Amino acid sequence: MWCRVVFSLFLFAQVFSIQANSFTVEHFKSIANDINRNPYPVYLQLLEIEKNKDQLEDEAYLWLLYRKAQAETLLYFHDKFSETVTYAQSRLTPDSPPEVVAAFNSFAGLVAERNGKYEEAAAYFRKAMALAERNSLNYVYTQAKHYLAYTLSLTELYETSLADLQEAYVEAFALDDHFLIAVINETYGAVYGYMNEYEKSIEHYNRALDTYERLGYKPYVVEAIYGLASTYRYMKKYDLAIDKFSLYMDRIEYTPNKEISYFGAYGLGMTYAEKGDCVHALEVIDKALNLKGQVDYDAELYKKRAQCYITLGQLDDAKQSIEMAESIFAKLPELTDTKWALETKKLRGQLAFAQGDFENGYVFLQDYYQRYTQFLIKNSSTQLIRVRAAMELERQNIEVSLLQQRNKVQQLQIAEQESENRQQIYFIVVAVIVLILILAIVINQYRNNKKIFALSITDPLSGSYNRRYIFDCLDRLVVNSQNKQSELAILLFDIDDFKQVNDQYGHPFGDEVIFRVAQLTQETLRVGDIVGRIGGEEFLCILPRTDVKQAATIAERLKENIEQALFTTESRDTVKITVSVGISALDESRQDRATLYVQSDKALYKAKHQGKNQVVTYSDV
C-alpha cells in the first residue's frame, strides 16, 4: 500500500515543485482534518512542498512546519518531530503568527514530556496557554491545557490535573469541538486509570473511541484502543488487555514507522508479567527494549523483567535489570520518591530474600515502606484514600509471602535457626512501625477531614461555595433530576460594571461588594438552594425542584434585593450595585450539565446586552 502512495506522489512531484508558491497559509490551515484522518500521504506531500520552501512566503512556511510536526507526532516519528520543532522555533520572530508560536510551545512541551522532563514540559504548556489567552485563541488554549493536565498526572498531581481537565472540558464544549472533547475524554481515561478509578477510565476511553471512529481519525482510534488495553491491565483483566493490545498492533498499519510497535510490545510484556506468564513476558519485553521507546516506559519494562527473573531464579539477570531501572530514574528527578521509582527498592528487597540475604531484604523493605508512607502523607487527599488502602492490602500480602518464605527456609536450613529468629524480630519491628505510621495517618486524616473538606469547597472571598464544588453539585443534581424526572433550574448572574467599581473605589471595596452580594444572595434563596462563586464577579445558583417560571420569580427578587441594598465606601459615598441574570432549566431534551451551563451563559450575555440589571431566560434568547 505504501508503495502505491509513494508512486502516486512521485507522479505529482513536479507539479508540487513548480507550484510550491501557490500553497498559501489558508491551504495549510485547511488540511488539519486530512492529517488527523490519514497522516502519512499528507506528510509525503508536505515533504515535496518543502523541497521548494524558498518559493513559499515566511508565514506559509511556518504553517507548513506546523502541519509537518502535527503529522510526525501522529506517525510516531519522534526524532523527526523533535528536529522540526527545534528548527521551527529557530525561525520564529515577534511577528510570527501567535497561533503557530503557541502551537510550537505546546510541541516543545511534548518533546520534553517524552524525555521525562515534566517540569520543563509544564512550563512550555503554560507559556502556550498564556500566549493563546492573550490572542483569544480558544482552541490552542484548551489543547495546551489538556496537555498540561496529562503531564501533571504523570507526576501524580491528580487533583490539579483533574481540575485543569474540568476547565478544559467546559471550554471545549463551549467551542462545540467534538474532536477536542474526545481528546480530553481520552486524557480523563488515562488519569482515572492511574488513580485506580477503572470504571470511569473505561467510560471515558469508550467515549473518546466512539468520537474518533465517527470522525475517521485513525491515529486517535489507535491511541484510545491502547488506553482501554492499559486500563484492563490495571484492572487485572489480563485476557481483555491482551485482546486490546493485539488489536492495537493490528491497527497501527496507518504509519510505516515500525518503532510504534514498541508501545504494543510494552503493553503485552507488562500484561504477561503481571499475569504470571514470565516466559512470554520476557520474550516480549526483550523485543520492546530493542525498539526505540520512551525512557520512563523502559524503566517500567526493566522492573517487570527483574520481577520475572526473580520468579524464575535468574538472580544475576534480575539484579542487572533493577540497576538499569535505577539508572533511568536517576536521570528523571521529577519521578524521585514517586511510586514508580520507589518500587525499585521493593524489588531490591525481594531479590535479597531470593538470594537468602534476609537481613538486607528487611532493610530494603523497611526503607521502601517508610518512603512510601511519606509519599502517602505528602499526597493524602480524599481521592487518594482508595489508593492508600490498596497499597496497604498489598503490603499485608507481601508480609504474608515473606513469612511463608521464612518458614520454608527454616525447614531447609535448620542450622541457621538463630539467624532466622533474629530476622523474624526485624520483620515484626518493621511491621509494627509501618502499622503505627499508617494508624497515625488515618487518625490525623480523620481529625482534619472536616476542616480540610470545608476549606476545599469554600470560596474564601465570598464565603459561598467555590467553582469546583458548585459544578460537582450541579453534576449530581442534573443526574438525580433526570433519574427522578424532576425539575431543576440554574441562575447565572454577574455584577454589572464591576471593573469600574474596582477602578473607581479600589479593590478592597470591590471585595466587600462581592462578599455583600453573596450574603444577599444566600438570604434571598430558599432552603435547599445552592450558590457558589465561579470566578471574578460571577455567581451560579442551583434551584432544585424549580421550573423556569419559579426561577424567574426568584431571580427578579434577587435582582431587586441587590439593587435596593446600600453599599457604602470608606469615604461614605453610596454606590448602587446591580446584577444581570441568565436562567436555564431542564426541559424535555434532558440536557447534561455542560449544556445547561452554556444555555444560562447565553441568557446572561443577552441580559448584559439589553442594558444590564436584567433577568433573561434561555427560552427568550
UniProtKB/TrEMBL annotation:
Keyword Membrane belongs to the record: yes
PROSITE patterns: GGDEF, TPR
Enzyme class, spelled out: transferase
Pfam families linked to this entry: GGDEF (PF00990), TPR_12 (PF13424), TPR_8 (PF13181)
UniProt GO molecular function: diguanylate cyclase activity
Reactions catalysed, as given in the entry: 2 GTP = 3',3'-c-di-GMP + 2 diphosphate
GGDEF domain span: 486-620
Range of residues in the leader sequence: 1-20
Record's keyword terms, sorted: Membrane, Signal, TPR repeat, Transmembrane, Transmembrane helix
Cofactor(s), names only, from the UniProt record: Mg(2+)
InterPro entries assigned to the protein according to its UniProt record, in alphabetical order: Diguanylate_Cyclase, GGDEF_dom, Nucleotide_cyclase, Rev_trsase/Diguanyl_cyclase, TPR-like_helical_dom_sf, TPR_rpt
Record field: transmembrane: 425-443
Enzyme Commission numbers on file: 2.7.7.65
Each TPR repeat, start to end: 102-135, 182-215
PANTHER family reported for this sequence: DIGUANYLATE CYCLASE DGCM-RELATED, REGULATORY COMPONENTS OF SENSORY TRANSDUCTION SYSTEM
Protein name, entry field: diguanylate cyclase
The species this protein was found in: Thalassotalea algicola
Lineage, broadest ranks: Bacteria, Pseudomonadati, Pseudomonadota, Gammaproteobacteria, Alteromonadales
